[in-house]
Structures are given as structure tokens and as C-alpha cells.
């Protein structure tokens, strides 16, 4: 990124160590200025679309999350009632809010964010994640293990959470929870194995007594990771835990 290079060069020239937070804030400012001054191109088709992230045509093709869905796990239900699975096996989180179904072309955008470092997609995703009911006291991004973070270079959930924090003016706690165990990728495991894979994968570094906390992630598939993190947050005293995700897989 051009602005990243400029910041690094200035820091080296002046002998100043620019902290990561200040560096990122300046990049955000420069990015917003560029977005306002230059015409944008659609993140999907590349056509000019003014100040929009997605052109009108591609916007109409996005798979909106079904209106009638289980309020807990966000899987479709006929009348928006709580699904049988959540009644039979209650989740540790209390609600899930998803912007899209994880289907084309939303899935292509989120994969580009995760694997191609197209960080602008995090801003786009945050614009479509709506809150409902009581505002959370804190936002907590789904943490990556330090080894995976070093490999990828960024945490896509953190990027979405940062954008949501700015949009709703909700404090973002990015160091309150740590992924202490490097788990196998959930996508390669059968559903029954995913819960066991995530067991005790997280540790809370702060107390959340009586607080309403929202976990932010890019995609919810089985919900095992979110459920385990919610369990730890409840153990740390959280009164209510919600999941805010850009997309929900409707069929696992």
C-alpha cells in the first residue's frame, strides 16, 4: 500500500518509531480521503460506481440473509422462531445478526478479504451489519492464533470490527480475549468434530461482569468457534453475548 510505504519511510528518515495504532489511524485517514476524492470501482465487477463500494447491478445480486430465521443461530425457520437445534442444545450466545447468506457473490468478496488482503471489503461488510435491540457495551473480534496472524498478516474479523466500532461508536476490545490454542481449520472437519476442536481454544484477559458483548466475525458456519468464545465470555461474567457476522452459511 502506498501510504504504508510513505509512513515507513518517514519513520526511518526521522528516526521515529511509529506505533502500530497511530500508523493504522493515519492509513485510515488517507484511505478515506482517497475514497472521497477518487471515483470508486465496484469490488465485484470493477465498473465505476461513484462513491459506492458495489455497483447497483451487483448490489441486487447479493444474497441477503433470510428475514425469517432463528434469532439465536440465524438459520432459516418458517416464521422466524427459534430452531429445534437451539431449543434442544442451547447455545452460549444469545443472538446472531448476519448481513448475507454465505453464497455467491458475497462469499467471493469475503474470500477476497481473507485470502487476498482486500481490506476495503471489511468496510463494505460493516456497512451491512445492523444492530437490533440494545447496543452492546463492547465489540470483540474473533481472535486468530498468533501463528496464523503472523502468516496472514491481519485478522479479517478485527478489520470488520474496527469498521463497526467507528460506525456505531462502540468500544473495541482487541486484546481482551486471546486464542491460546492453535486449532485445526474448522472447514476441514465434520460438524461433530468442530466443537471438540474449539474446546478451551480461548482465554479471557478481562472480566465482563454484567456486560453485553458482541463477537464480530466474517463468516458463521457451524457456529462452534463463536459458541466456544461466547462460553468463555459468559464464564468471565458477560450477561449477554451476541454474534455479528457478515455472512451465515445456510447449509453446513
Write the layout of secondary structure elements.
Blueprint: H1 2-14, H2 20-37, H3 56-61, H4 84-88, E1 95-101, H5 106-116, H6 120-128, E2 138-141, H7 146-152, H8 156-168, E3 177-179, H9 191-198, E4 202-204, E5 212-220, H10 224-235, E6 240-248
Parallel strand pairs: 1-6, 2-5, 5-6
Antiparallel strand pairs: 3-4
Helix pairs in contact: 5-6, 6-8
Q: Which short descriptors sum up this protein?
A:
14% strand; globular; alpha/beta; 252 residues; four-stranded parallel sheet; 40% helix; two-stranded antiparallel sheet
What profile does the largest beta sheet have? 4 strands, parallel
Instruction: Please state the CA-atom Rg, rounded to the nearest Å.
Output: 19 Å
Strand content: 5-15%
Total of DSSP H or I helical runs spanning 4+ residues: 10
Flag low-confidence runs: 6-20
Let me know the number of strands.
6
Spatial order of the strands forming the largest sheet = 1-6-5-2
Oligomer: single chain
State mean pLDDT (0 to 100 scale): 84
Distance between the termini: 36 Å
The structural class is alpha/beta
Order of helices and strands: HHHHEHHEHHEHEEHE
**What would the principal axes of the Cα set say about the shape?**
globular
Helix content: 40-55%
Summarize the structure.
The protein has 252 residues and is of the alpha/beta class. It is built from ten helices and six strands, in the order H-H-H-H-E-H-H-E-H-H-E-H-E-E-H-E.
Amino acid at each position: 500500500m502506498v501510504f504504508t510505504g510513505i509512513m515507513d519511510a518517514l519513520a526511518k528518515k526521522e528516526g521515529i518509531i511509529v506505533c502500530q495504532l497511530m500508523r493504522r489511524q493515519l492509513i485510515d485517514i488517507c484511505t478515506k480521503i482517497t475514497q472521497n476524492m477518487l471515483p470508486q470501482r465496484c469490488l465485484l465487477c470493477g465498473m465505476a460506481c461513484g462513491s459506492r463500494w458495489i455497483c447497483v447491478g451487483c448490489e441486487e445480486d447479493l444474497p441477503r440473509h433470510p428475514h425469517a430465521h432463528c434469532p439465536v443461530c440465524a438459520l432459516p425457520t418458517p416464521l422466524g422462531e427459534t430452531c429445534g437445534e437451539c431449543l434442544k442444545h442451547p447455545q452460549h450466545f444469545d443472538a446472531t445478526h448476519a448481513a448475507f447468506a454465505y453464497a455467491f457473490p458475497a462469499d467471493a468478496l469475503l474470500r477476497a478479504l481473507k485470502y487476498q488482503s482486500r481490506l476495503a471489503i471489511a468496510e463494505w461488510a460493516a456497512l451491512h451489519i445492523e444492530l437490533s435491540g440494545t447496543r452492546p457495551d463492547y465489540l470483540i473480534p474473533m481472535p486468530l492464533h498468533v501463528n496464523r496472524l503472523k502468516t496472514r498478516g491481519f485478522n479479517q474479523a478485527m478489520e470488520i470490527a474496527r469498521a463497526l466500532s467507528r460506525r456505531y461508536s462502540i468500544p473495541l476490545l482487541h486484546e481482551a480475549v486471546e486464542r491460546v490454542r492453535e486449532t485445526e481449520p474448522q472447514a476441514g472437519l465434520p460438524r461433530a468434530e468442530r466443537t471438540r476442536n474449539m474446546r478451551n481454544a480461548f482465554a479471557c484477559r478481562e472480566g465482563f461482569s454484567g456486560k453485553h458483548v458482541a463477537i464480530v466475525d466474517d463468516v458463521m458456519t457451524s457456529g462452534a468457534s463463536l459458541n466456544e468464545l461466547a462460553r468463555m465470555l459468559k464464564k468471565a461474567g458477560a450477561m449477554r453475548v451476541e454474534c455479528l457476522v457478515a455472512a451465515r452459511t445456510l447449509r453446513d
